[in-house]
Design goal:
Elements (H helix, E strand, L loop, with lengths): L6 H7 L2 E4 L7 H15 L4 E5 L15 E4 L5 H15 L3 E4 L2 H13 L5 E4 L5 H7 L4 H17 L2 E4 L2 H11 L6 E3 L7 H7 L15 E5 L8 H14 L3 E5 L5 H10 L6 E5 L5 H4 L4 E4 L8 H8 L4 E4 L5 H4 L8 E2 L4 H13 L4 H5 L7 H12 L4
Parallel strand pairs: 1-2, 1-4, 2-3, 4-5, 5-6, 6-7, 8-9, 8-11, 9-10, 11-12, 12-13
Helix pairs in contact: 2-16, 3-4, 9-14
InterPro entries: Glyco_trans_1 (IPR001296), Glyco_trans_4-like_N (IPR028098)
Pfam family, one: Glycos_transf_1
Keywords: Transferase
Length: 380
Protein backbone atom coordinates (compact mmCIF):
# COMPACT_ATOMS: atom_id res chain seq x y z
CA UNK A 1 0.00 0.00 0.00
CA UNK A 2 1.34 3.44 -0.89
CA UNK A 3 1.65 6.15 1.73
CA UNK A 4 -1.23 8.01 0.09
CA UNK A 5 -3.62 5.03 -0.05
CA UNK A 6 -6.11 4.37 2.72
CA UNK A 7 -7.35 0.86 3.65
CA UNK A 8 -10.81 1.81 2.31
CA UNK A 9 -9.35 2.75 -1.07
CA UNK A 10 -7.39 -0.51 -1.27
CA UNK A 11 -10.50 -2.54 -0.39
CA UNK A 12 -12.58 -0.66 -2.95
CA UNK A 13 -10.04 -1.44 -5.66
CA UNK A 14 -10.30 -5.20 -5.07
CA UNK A 15 -13.18 -6.83 -6.94
CA UNK A 16 -16.40 -8.11 -5.48
CA UNK A 17 -16.97 -11.39 -7.34
CA UNK A 18 -20.44 -12.82 -7.91
CA UNK A 19 -20.06 -16.50 -8.79
CA UNK A 20 -23.11 -17.90 -10.63
CA UNK A 21 -21.96 -20.11 -13.53
CA UNK A 22 -25.20 -22.13 -13.46
CA UNK A 23 -27.07 -19.18 -14.95
CA UNK A 24 -30.72 -19.61 -15.94
CA UNK A 25 -33.70 -17.28 -16.29
CA UNK A 26 -35.07 -17.30 -12.74
CA UNK A 27 -35.30 -14.93 -9.82
CA UNK A 28 -31.88 -15.81 -8.41
CA UNK A 29 -30.21 -14.80 -11.66
CA UNK A 30 -32.18 -11.58 -11.86
CA UNK A 31 -31.36 -10.60 -8.28
CA UNK A 32 -27.65 -11.40 -8.63
CA UNK A 33 -27.61 -9.24 -11.75
CA UNK A 34 -29.24 -6.41 -9.79
CA UNK A 35 -26.77 -6.87 -6.93
CA UNK A 36 -23.87 -6.59 -9.40
CA UNK A 37 -25.44 -3.44 -10.83
CA UNK A 38 -26.03 -1.86 -7.43
CA UNK A 39 -22.55 -2.57 -6.04
CA UNK A 40 -20.94 -1.23 -9.22
CA UNK A 41 -22.96 1.97 -8.83
CA UNK A 42 -21.51 2.35 -5.34
CA UNK A 43 -18.06 2.65 -6.96
CA UNK A 44 -16.74 -0.88 -6.40
CA UNK A 45 -15.10 -3.13 -8.99
CA UNK A 46 -17.50 -6.01 -9.76
CA UNK A 47 -16.64 -9.27 -11.50
CA UNK A 48 -19.52 -11.55 -12.48
CA UNK A 49 -18.73 -15.20 -13.26
CA UNK A 50 -21.65 -16.48 -15.34
CA UNK A 51 -22.50 -19.03 -18.01
CA UNK A 52 -23.03 -18.28 -21.71
CA UNK A 53 -22.68 -14.67 -22.89
CA UNK A 54 -26.28 -14.61 -24.14
CA UNK A 55 -27.76 -15.49 -20.73
CA UNK A 56 -30.86 -13.47 -19.71
CA UNK A 57 -30.54 -10.15 -17.86
CA UNK A 58 -26.83 -9.63 -18.56
CA UNK A 59 -27.59 -6.96 -21.14
CA UNK A 60 -28.96 -4.77 -18.33
CA UNK A 61 -25.59 -4.53 -16.57
CA UNK A 62 -23.44 -1.39 -16.76
CA UNK A 63 -20.26 -1.64 -18.81
CA UNK A 64 -18.16 -1.40 -15.65
CA UNK A 65 -19.22 -4.91 -14.55
CA UNK A 66 -16.64 -7.37 -15.87
CA UNK A 67 -18.18 -10.60 -17.16
CA UNK A 68 -16.28 -13.90 -16.99
CA UNK A 69 -17.98 -16.68 -18.94
CA UNK A 70 -17.73 -20.26 -17.71
CA UNK A 71 -19.80 -22.73 -19.69
CA UNK A 72 -18.44 -26.06 -18.37
CA UNK A 73 -20.96 -28.01 -16.31
CA UNK A 74 -18.32 -30.15 -14.63
CA UNK A 75 -17.72 -29.14 -11.00
CA UNK A 76 -13.98 -29.69 -11.30
CA UNK A 77 -13.78 -27.28 -14.23
CA UNK A 78 -15.71 -24.67 -12.30
CA UNK A 79 -13.50 -25.12 -9.27
CA UNK A 80 -10.37 -24.78 -11.39
CA UNK A 81 -11.76 -21.68 -13.09
CA UNK A 82 -12.64 -19.99 -9.78
CA UNK A 83 -9.32 -21.02 -8.20
CA UNK A 84 -7.37 -19.43 -11.05
CA UNK A 85 -9.56 -16.34 -10.97
CA UNK A 86 -9.05 -15.82 -7.21
CA UNK A 87 -5.31 -16.33 -7.52
CA UNK A 88 -5.17 -13.78 -10.33
CA UNK A 89 -7.63 -11.09 -9.21
CA UNK A 90 -7.56 -11.43 -5.39
CA UNK A 91 -11.21 -10.42 -4.91
CA UNK A 92 -12.26 -9.07 -1.53
CA UNK A 93 -15.50 -11.10 -1.65
CA UNK A 94 -16.87 -14.11 -3.50
CA UNK A 95 -20.68 -14.23 -3.27
CA UNK A 96 -22.62 -17.35 -4.28
CA UNK A 97 -26.37 -17.96 -4.43
CA UNK A 98 -26.92 -21.65 -5.32
CA UNK A 99 -25.93 -24.68 -3.27
CA UNK A 100 -23.82 -26.31 -5.98
CA UNK A 101 -21.93 -23.06 -6.53
CA UNK A 102 -21.54 -22.71 -2.73
CA UNK A 103 -19.76 -26.07 -2.68
CA UNK A 104 -17.42 -25.08 -5.49
CA UNK A 105 -16.56 -21.75 -3.85
CA UNK A 106 -15.90 -23.23 -0.42
CA UNK A 107 -13.71 -25.94 -1.95
CA UNK A 108 -11.61 -23.14 -3.47
CA UNK A 109 -11.56 -21.35 -0.10
CA UNK A 110 -10.12 -24.45 1.60
CA UNK A 111 -7.38 -24.76 -1.02
CA UNK A 112 -6.06 -21.19 -0.73
CA UNK A 113 -4.46 -19.07 1.95
CA UNK A 114 -5.46 -15.57 0.85
CA UNK A 115 -7.82 -13.18 2.63
CA UNK A 116 -10.72 -13.43 0.16
CA UNK A 117 -13.99 -13.84 2.09
CA UNK A 118 -16.62 -16.29 0.88
CA UNK A 119 -20.25 -15.34 1.48
CA UNK A 120 -23.33 -17.48 0.81
CA UNK A 121 -26.75 -16.08 -0.11
CA UNK A 122 -29.55 -18.57 0.69
CA UNK A 123 -32.71 -17.53 -1.12
CA UNK A 124 -35.39 -19.98 0.00
CA UNK A 125 -36.72 -21.82 3.04
CA UNK A 126 -34.99 -25.14 2.55
CA UNK A 127 -37.02 -27.01 5.19
CA UNK A 128 -40.28 -26.14 3.41
CA UNK A 129 -38.78 -27.26 0.13
CA UNK A 130 -37.90 -30.63 1.64
CA UNK A 131 -41.40 -31.04 3.08
CA UNK A 132 -43.15 -30.13 -0.16
CA UNK A 133 -40.99 -32.55 -2.13
CA UNK A 134 -41.62 -35.38 0.32
CA UNK A 135 -38.00 -36.05 1.20
CA UNK A 136 -37.69 -39.24 3.24
CA UNK A 137 -36.17 -38.85 6.74
CA UNK A 138 -32.80 -40.35 5.81
CA UNK A 139 -32.46 -38.17 2.72
CA UNK A 140 -33.48 -35.09 4.73
CA UNK A 141 -30.97 -35.92 7.48
CA UNK A 142 -28.18 -36.24 4.92
CA UNK A 143 -29.03 -32.96 3.18
CA UNK A 144 -29.28 -31.19 6.55
CA UNK A 145 -25.86 -32.57 7.51
CA UNK A 146 -24.36 -31.42 4.22
CA UNK A 147 -25.86 -27.94 4.48
CA UNK A 148 -24.70 -27.57 8.09
CA UNK A 149 -21.11 -28.40 7.09
CA UNK A 150 -21.34 -26.02 4.17
CA UNK A 151 -22.71 -23.01 6.05
CA UNK A 152 -20.34 -23.41 8.98
CA UNK A 153 -17.36 -23.06 6.62
CA UNK A 154 -18.56 -19.80 5.08
CA UNK A 155 -17.17 -16.41 6.11
CA UNK A 156 -20.64 -14.90 5.98
CA UNK A 157 -24.29 -15.65 5.27
CA UNK A 158 -26.76 -13.14 3.85
CA UNK A 159 -30.41 -14.22 3.83
CA UNK A 160 -33.07 -12.56 1.69
CA UNK A 161 -35.66 -12.50 4.47
CA UNK A 162 -35.98 -13.05 8.21
CA UNK A 163 -37.86 -16.27 7.50
CA UNK A 164 -34.95 -17.64 5.47
CA UNK A 165 -32.49 -16.56 8.18
CA UNK A 166 -34.51 -18.37 10.84
CA UNK A 167 -34.71 -21.47 8.64
CA UNK A 168 -30.93 -21.52 8.09
CA UNK A 169 -30.36 -21.13 11.84
CA UNK A 170 -32.78 -23.97 12.63
CA UNK A 171 -31.17 -26.31 10.08
CA UNK A 172 -27.53 -25.59 10.89
CA UNK A 173 -27.60 -24.62 14.56
CA UNK A 174 -25.79 -21.38 13.73
CA UNK A 175 -26.63 -18.38 15.93
CA UNK A 176 -29.22 -16.16 14.28
CA UNK A 177 -27.02 -13.11 14.79
CA UNK A 178 -24.42 -14.64 12.45
CA UNK A 179 -26.88 -14.42 9.56
CA UNK A 180 -27.48 -11.01 8.04
CA UNK A 181 -30.76 -10.13 6.33
CA UNK A 182 -30.58 -7.89 3.27
CA UNK A 183 -33.67 -7.31 1.15
CA UNK A 184 -33.58 -8.17 -2.54
CA UNK A 185 -32.80 -5.25 -4.89
CA UNK A 186 -36.05 -5.51 -6.81
CA UNK A 187 -36.79 -1.84 -7.37
CA UNK A 188 -34.36 -0.50 -9.93
CA UNK A 189 -34.41 2.66 -12.03
CA UNK A 190 -35.14 0.41 -15.02
CA UNK A 191 -38.23 -1.22 -13.48
CA UNK A 192 -40.66 1.58 -14.24
CA UNK A 193 -39.08 2.18 -17.64
CA UNK A 194 -39.48 -1.50 -18.53
CA UNK A 195 -43.10 -1.38 -17.36
CA UNK A 196 -43.81 1.41 -19.86
CA UNK A 197 -42.63 -0.68 -22.84
CA UNK A 198 -45.32 -1.33 -25.48
CA UNK A 199 -47.44 -4.47 -25.14
CA UNK A 200 -49.30 -5.79 -28.15
CA UNK A 201 -51.61 -8.33 -26.54
CA UNK A 202 -55.38 -8.30 -27.13
CA UNK A 203 -56.22 -9.12 -23.50
CA UNK A 204 -54.72 -5.82 -22.33
CA UNK A 205 -56.63 -3.61 -24.77
CA UNK A 206 -58.92 -0.92 -23.30
CA UNK A 207 -62.31 -2.22 -22.22
CA UNK A 208 -61.18 -5.85 -21.89
CA UNK A 209 -61.87 -7.83 -18.67
CA UNK A 210 -59.17 -7.63 -15.97
CA UNK A 211 -56.16 -9.90 -16.39
CA UNK A 212 -54.98 -11.85 -13.34
CA UNK A 213 -51.31 -12.76 -13.51
CA UNK A 214 -48.98 -15.42 -12.17
CA UNK A 215 -45.25 -15.38 -12.85
CA UNK A 216 -42.63 -18.10 -12.33
CA UNK A 217 -41.33 -21.44 -13.49
CA UNK A 218 -44.02 -24.03 -14.21
CA UNK A 219 -42.92 -26.30 -11.38
CA UNK A 220 -44.09 -27.72 -8.05
CA UNK A 221 -42.99 -24.73 -5.92
CA UNK A 222 -45.26 -22.21 -7.67
CA UNK A 223 -48.41 -24.39 -7.38
CA UNK A 224 -50.07 -22.89 -10.44
CA UNK A 225 -52.60 -25.75 -10.35
CA UNK A 226 -54.16 -24.18 -7.25
CA UNK A 227 -54.14 -20.77 -8.97
CA UNK A 228 -55.92 -22.17 -12.04
CA UNK A 229 -58.54 -23.89 -9.86
CA UNK A 230 -59.13 -20.68 -7.89
CA UNK A 231 -59.30 -18.68 -11.11
CA UNK A 232 -61.98 -21.03 -12.45
CA UNK A 233 -64.15 -20.16 -9.43
CA UNK A 234 -63.59 -16.42 -9.88
CA UNK A 235 -64.28 -16.71 -13.62
CA UNK A 236 -67.73 -18.12 -12.84
CA UNK A 237 -68.50 -14.96 -10.85
CA UNK A 238 -67.15 -12.29 -13.19
CA UNK A 239 -65.42 -11.83 -16.59
CA UNK A 240 -61.63 -12.11 -16.17
CA UNK A 241 -58.61 -13.85 -17.64
CA UNK A 242 -55.49 -15.53 -16.29
CA UNK A 243 -52.05 -15.14 -17.88
CA UNK A 244 -49.05 -17.01 -16.49
CA UNK A 245 -45.51 -16.02 -17.51
CA UNK A 246 -42.93 -18.79 -17.20
CA UNK A 247 -41.85 -22.08 -18.66
CA UNK A 248 -41.28 -25.53 -17.23
CA UNK A 249 -42.15 -29.20 -17.24
CA UNK A 250 -45.71 -28.75 -15.91
CA UNK A 251 -46.89 -26.77 -18.95
CA UNK A 252 -48.94 -29.52 -20.58
CA UNK A 253 -50.43 -30.65 -17.28
CA UNK A 254 -51.57 -27.12 -16.46
CA UNK A 255 -52.99 -26.61 -19.95
CA UNK A 256 -55.05 -29.80 -19.58
CA UNK A 257 -56.26 -28.72 -16.14
CA UNK A 258 -57.54 -25.40 -17.49
CA UNK A 259 -59.40 -27.25 -20.23
CA UNK A 260 -60.95 -29.74 -17.78
CA UNK A 261 -62.20 -26.84 -15.64
CA UNK A 262 -63.80 -25.15 -18.65
CA UNK A 263 -61.49 -22.11 -18.65
CA UNK A 264 -59.07 -23.13 -21.37
CA UNK A 265 -59.93 -20.10 -23.50
CA UNK A 266 -59.44 -17.74 -20.54
CA UNK A 267 -56.04 -19.10 -19.41
CA UNK A 268 -52.82 -18.42 -21.31
CA UNK A 269 -49.49 -20.05 -20.48
CA UNK A 270 -47.47 -17.40 -22.22
CA UNK A 271 -43.97 -18.77 -21.59
CA UNK A 272 -40.88 -16.83 -20.54
CA UNK A 273 -40.69 -13.13 -21.35
CA UNK A 274 -37.56 -11.05 -20.65
CA UNK A 275 -39.72 -8.07 -19.72
CA UNK A 276 -42.57 -9.28 -17.47
CA UNK A 277 -43.11 -5.77 -16.13
CA UNK A 278 -45.01 -4.51 -19.18
CA UNK A 279 -47.53 -7.27 -18.46
CA UNK A 280 -47.59 -6.74 -14.68
CA UNK A 281 -48.09 -2.98 -14.90
CA UNK A 282 -51.26 -3.53 -16.93
CA UNK A 283 -52.66 -6.39 -14.81
CA UNK A 284 -55.72 -6.08 -12.62
CA UNK A 285 -54.22 -8.44 -10.02
CA UNK A 286 -51.05 -10.43 -9.34
CA UNK A 287 -51.35 -13.72 -7.46
CA UNK A 288 -48.53 -15.61 -5.74
CA UNK A 289 -49.73 -19.19 -5.18
CA UNK A 290 -46.40 -20.68 -4.03
CA UNK A 291 -45.89 -23.58 -1.62
CA UNK A 292 -42.68 -21.98 -0.36
CA UNK A 293 -40.53 -18.94 -1.12
CA UNK A 294 -37.53 -17.02 0.15
CA UNK A 295 -38.41 -13.48 -0.78
CA UNK A 296 -40.64 -13.59 -3.87
CA UNK A 297 -39.28 -10.95 -6.23
CA UNK A 298 -42.33 -10.60 -8.42
CA UNK A 299 -44.55 -9.90 -5.40
CA UNK A 300 -42.31 -6.97 -4.46
CA UNK A 301 -42.17 -5.75 -8.06
CA UNK A 302 -45.94 -5.89 -8.44
CA UNK A 303 -46.35 -3.69 -5.36
CA UNK A 304 -43.71 -1.28 -6.69
CA UNK A 305 -45.76 -0.97 -9.88
CA UNK A 306 -48.92 -0.29 -7.88
CA UNK A 307 -50.58 -3.59 -8.82
CA UNK A 308 -52.94 -5.22 -6.25
CA UNK A 309 -51.73 -8.58 -4.96
CA UNK A 310 -52.87 -11.75 -3.23
CA UNK A 311 -50.41 -14.28 -1.83
CA UNK A 312 -50.28 -17.59 -0.04
CA UNK A 313 -48.98 -17.34 3.50
CA UNK A 314 -46.06 -19.63 2.68
CA UNK A 315 -42.70 -19.62 4.39
CA UNK A 316 -41.22 -17.19 3.89
CA UNK A 317 -41.38 -13.71 2.47
CA UNK A 318 -45.03 -12.93 1.65
CA UNK A 319 -45.99 -12.14 5.25
CA UNK A 320 -42.89 -9.94 5.65
CA UNK A 321 -43.46 -8.14 2.34
CA UNK A 322 -47.19 -7.65 2.86
CA UNK A 323 -46.67 -6.73 6.53
CA UNK A 324 -49.08 -9.31 7.94
CA UNK A 325 -51.69 -8.66 5.25
CA UNK A 326 -51.73 -4.87 5.42
CA UNK A 327 -50.85 -4.56 1.71
CA UNK A 328 -52.65 -7.62 0.38
CA UNK A 329 -54.52 -10.72 1.57
CA UNK A 330 -52.61 -13.77 2.79
CA UNK A 331 -54.33 -17.14 2.34
CA UNK A 332 -53.43 -20.69 3.43
CA UNK A 333 -51.19 -22.64 1.07
CA UNK A 334 -53.16 -24.86 -1.31
CA UNK A 335 -56.59 -23.55 -0.24
CA UNK A 336 -58.48 -23.06 -3.51
CA UNK A 337 -61.62 -21.57 -1.97
CA UNK A 338 -59.74 -19.07 0.22
CA UNK A 339 -57.57 -18.02 -2.70
CA UNK A 340 -60.61 -17.54 -4.96
CA UNK A 341 -62.37 -15.41 -2.31
CA UNK A 342 -59.29 -13.22 -1.83
CA UNK A 343 -58.86 -12.78 -5.58
CA UNK A 344 -62.49 -11.77 -6.09
CA UNK A 345 -62.48 -9.36 -3.13
CA UNK A 346 -59.24 -7.74 -4.23
CA UNK A 347 -60.50 -7.27 -7.78
CA UNK A 348 -63.63 -5.67 -6.34
CA UNK A 349 -61.88 -3.44 -3.78
CA UNK A 350 -58.18 -2.97 -4.67
CA UNK A 351 -55.84 -0.82 -2.60
CA UNK A 352 -54.69 2.42 -4.21
CA UNK A 353 -51.36 2.21 -6.12
CA UNK A 354 -49.71 4.83 -3.90
CA UNK A 355 -50.57 2.76 -0.81
CA UNK A 356 -49.15 -0.43 -2.36
CA UNK A 357 -45.86 1.28 -3.22
CA UNK A 358 -45.32 2.16 0.46
CA UNK A 359 -44.65 -1.51 1.24
CA UNK A 360 -41.40 -1.87 -0.68
CA UNK A 361 -39.11 1.07 0.08
CA UNK A 362 -36.45 -1.25 1.59
CA UNK A 363 -36.22 -3.16 -1.71
CA UNK A 364 -34.73 -0.28 -3.71
CA UNK A 365 -31.49 -1.04 -5.54
CA UNK A 366 -29.38 1.54 -3.70
CA UNK A 367 -30.65 0.48 -0.26
CA UNK A 368 -30.01 -3.21 -0.94
CA UNK A 369 -26.56 -2.63 -2.46
CA UNK A 370 -25.53 -0.64 0.60
CA UNK A 371 -26.82 -3.49 2.78
CA UNK A 372 -24.67 -6.02 0.93
CA UNK A 373 -21.56 -3.84 1.23
CA UNK A 374 -22.16 -3.41 4.97
CA UNK A 375 -22.61 -7.17 5.37
CA UNK A 376 -19.37 -7.73 3.45
CA UNK A 377 -17.60 -5.34 5.82
CA UNK A 378 -16.59 -3.10 2.91
CA UNK A 379 -18.38 0.01 4.21
CA UNK A 380 -19.16 1.19 7.73
Amino acid sequence: MSAESTPAEVTRSRPVCLFLPSFGDGGVERMMTNIAHGIAEQGFVVDFVVGPPDAPYLDTLPASVRLHHLTERDRRARRRFLHDYVERERPAIVLTAKTDDDRVALAVKSSQSGDTRYVLRPGTTQSERWSARGRNPLKRWWERYQLTRLYRRADGIIAVSHGVAEDVAAITGLPLDRIRVVRNPNITPELEQSALAPLDHPWFAPGEPPVIMGVGGLRLQKDFATLIRAFAQVHRQRPCRLLILGQGRQRERLRRLAGELGVGEAVELHGFDPNPYRFLARAGLFVLSSLWEGSPNVLTESLALGVPVVATDCRSGPREILQNGRYGPLVPVGDVEALARAMEETLRQPLAPEVLREAVNDYRLDVSARGYLEAFGLVG
